[in-house]
Amino acid sequence: MDPAIRTQDLTRIYRKARSRGEPQGEFRALDGVNLEVRPGELFGLLGPNGAGKSTLIKILSTLLFPTSGLAQVCGLDVVKQCEQVRERINMVSGGEPSGYGLLTIREQLWVFSQLYGLTTKTALERIDRALEQYGLANDAGTKINRLSTGMRQKMNLIRGFMTNPTVLFLDEPTLGLDVHIARQTRDYIRSWMAEDRSRTILLTTHYMAEAEDLCDRVAIIHAGKIRACDTPANLIAAFRRETVFELTLAGLDGRAAELRNLAGVTVVRLDSDPAAGRTTVRLSMPDDAALPAVLGGIAGLGGRILNLSKNEVTLEDVFVGIAGRSFADAEKQEE
Amino acid sequence: MKRALRNAATSFVLCWKKETNWAGAWVYLPFALLRPVAGALLIFVMVRAASAPPDYFAPAWLGNAFFQLVPAVLGGLAWAVIEDRERYQMFKYIYLAPGNVVPYLMGHGLARAAHALIGVAALAAAGVALLGIRTPEFHPALLAVTLALGLACLLALSLALAGLALLVARHGHFMTESIGGVFFLFSGAVFPVDVLPAWIRPLAFASPVTWWLELLRRSLGLHFGSALDGVSTPAALAILAGFTVFCAFLGRAAWFAGERKARWKGLLDATTAY
Amino acid sequence: MSSLRNNLRAAGARAWIRVVAANRELSWVWFETFLPALTTACYVFIYRAMGAAPEFESYVILGGIMIGFWLNVLWGMAAQFFWEKDMGNLDIYMMAPISRMAILLGMALGGMTGTAMRSVVILLLGIFAFRVRFEVAGLATAFGIFLLTMASLYGLGMMLSSLFLLFGRGAQRWAEAAQEPIYLLAGFYFPVRNLGFGVAAAASLFPLALGIDAMRQTALGSRAGFLPVGVEAAALAALTVLFGLLARTMLRTMENRAKTEGKLTLKWQ
Fold it and tell me: I need a surface site. Which of A13, A33, A54, A111 has the fewest CB within 10 A?
């Protein structure tokens, strides 16, 4: 059986606009990506902003050509067989306004169903069922320009699901949603997958907990390269040899950033609140024996420990172990 | 005041960039001239096709040249509202920033005027250099005062349209183009107001653009029809000044009314999306 | 067959959006029908000021009627791809298993409601306010010419849409700048032969130049035609085929270029 998604040495280079007096630059959004997603999998792609997640989804959903390499969906080449690929896919992007403001939710969904050749009867049956399942039935007659962000995103998800794609791409589906709607969305994704085991979803996110909660397997992508690919449990197990501590500190007085220079540890996350005079730091180290030296270093910076706890390894710790820095840091560097 | 001026200057630069930064200068200049030149050539071909009398051409050509400013400035502020709100979705941020949104809109209007002036200058120069148009007299002071008053009046009217643009959908840009068309009809830009049916003529007299174009022609010693012959130049100037003051009040009132209603109806960040 | 059915379904749905949305937001009626009629009237008065023969007024009315169709092609269809991109809808259309021409057809058909109303208002203005007289015997032929003109015009519009797909804001600026040049070259307000043979022949690549000229000859009995009606009709038929084929090729080429350069879904271009 063909993999649902397969990429081989997939590379995409964007040419940067030429500035006056400067040579043309290049940005390597994807750099030799090799990936295989099996039919029936809910596969997560994790990475900070600018890591290449959306570029990969755009290529797989036939919206962008790769610069080199191979990309296949359901065994079909997305460049040469894009028409056949489109029969089998759909895509939903989170946080993007789309749709026609003066149409109602039900009308809007009907319009997009017509792009996939559904008869009006079938389309409306599916739409009404989905609206019911996803808690939007009472708003079916509401115009799009009156929708909240959450309602709009629910509508967008239904747009993607209602055509019954073999492979569905979800690009940050819970971006900007509140906790309740994000949970509803994850439940809806799960139930849609459970309806038919041949369905495949490729989901990008930079919410670690979401990937851990939803995905059968995840790949960590950073700077256009796949750095790791396995089940969340296996990735975490591989990192269990590391020890993770979370400390709340006071008295650092603007020297919090120097915690990054402590020898023998990796700073997973560093949140500094100068107004409250507190810093929370999450540290990963080879074993407990490294702790005394770390505490000495903190004392050397003038820091006082308010709280110290030993934590379970999470996907975020895995990411930092692989990429060498946290999501937040990676995003800051992209900026 | 200082903040308002800074707002307007920033907005001028922003609008100028939006108008021009999609192309290099060698593409932009012919682009800026294409529309006014083709519009003027349209009049030129019509004159030849209909064998118009010789005294028709010069005032019509120059009237058409100066009229380039009218739709550009008149629609400038409304267009800024529509584009910033619908396309860039930035209007809400501009609106909530301290330092009134009106100077920001005025900056856009002035940038559009500067853009249109390129066409006005090119057409006037082409008329004189290539088509043999001769101006019997030249009164620079009258020309300068008239241009300044007309520009102020058009900016004020544009503010009123911007207030209206807050309340309508994206096709508000058709609104500005269409209203430019109304002025083209009622203001004697390319034909004397005498030609209009008698029952429509009062509308022409009630249009500040009619007096503006008449004074511009007088500053060049040109004569176009006889409907305004009975009004002396100082009187015409006073009428234009009166219109400018009236439009300033009208523009302000219409803008604030539109703004209040848009805020009430939640339209300050609305998008049409169809 | 099922592909044709799916494409027609998609075109119908896209047209439906226009019709329904326009009915829910009626401000366009004023700005797109009544006021353009006044602009048309303006050109009638220009001829009156020149003391031109009455047939020039009827030329203006027919030109004014046809302008609406051109604007619908340009702004309601060709430029719409650019607007859809900014609205976040273009990627939905582009990854759907349907022809891009079906979507464009839907946009064009949907926009016809407004265009038809605009044209009827100008027609009524011509008949009742300016006493334009039509040659009844030539109306059937004129209608045939109109349909041919529309077919080739919409083919041209589909070609232009491919440019909007790739060049975005640049294409929009050029389309705005080309408005008056098109009015000039199409002979909306005067018989196109007044441009001189060479320019008129070049302008004939724009279907409205030939279409309006042929319609003036058949519906208004104009003797100031550029070419015989039969020749103009044949040329329009040829343009329809040519633009149809070119539109298909250009849409595919420009889409591929946009995908290569990463501009297909690039917002605020």
Answer: A13
